Amino acid sequence: MEDKELLILNKQQIQQKIDRIAYQILEDNYDEQEIIIAGMLPRGGFLATRLKKVLDEIAPFKSKVLTIDLDRFSTSLNATVDADIQQCNDKVVILVDDVLNSGKSLAYGFGVFLDVPLKKLRTVVLVDRNHKNFPVFTDYSGIALSTIIKQHIDVKLSENGEEDAVYLR
């Protein structure tokens, strides 16, 4: 049986979603001095960097990107962060990933910040699949799709943005 592929978001639509999410983040954090955008590698890191780029153009506050490298197949939290996590003390942290499916990755992402006194923690995903096994929700999403479990969302993101696309397979 041949796998069918349906284009959900093209490069331009992905950038429009990122722009819209950046404006939502700005509206919710206008009075902040600095926010931290924590991207979950690999594609969440690309999204975090792009959100920062838009926010740098429109927001009065500073933003920093840090990345979280997470073992998504571990049965316990096994993550590394590319910066000192204490820089997040008393700041707004925006946790970014490409797809929210079961919620496990975002739940582990939350775990990185459990011992850090944050002002608030918000989540961003490009695609919310609505198949949560964990009580995790997203504050900002590009698109919400009700898919069947057998379907797969394939997010193609590159550092330079040239080959961006989201497919349903």
From TrEMBL:
The molecular function terms in GO held by this entry are: glycosyltransferase activity
In terms of SUPFAM superfamilies, this protein maps to: PRTase-like
In what residue span(s) does the Phosphoribosyltransferase domain sit? 8-159
The record's annotation in CDD domains points to: PRTases_typeI (cd06223)
Q: What InterPro entries does this protein's entry cite?
A: PRTase-like, PRTase_dom, PyrR_bifunctional
Q: Which Pfam families match?
A: Pribosyltran
- Entries under Gene3D superfamilies matching the protein: 3.40.50.2020
Carries keyword Lipoprotein? no
Q: Which UniProt keywords apply?
A: Glycosyltransferase, Transferase
User: PANTHER family given for it?
Assistant: BIFUNCTIONAL PROTEIN PYRR
This protein's name: Phosphoribosyltransferase
Protein's organism: Mucilaginibacter corticis
Please name the taxonomic classification of the source: Bacteria, Pseudomonadati, Bacteroidota, Sphingobacteriia, Sphingobacteriales
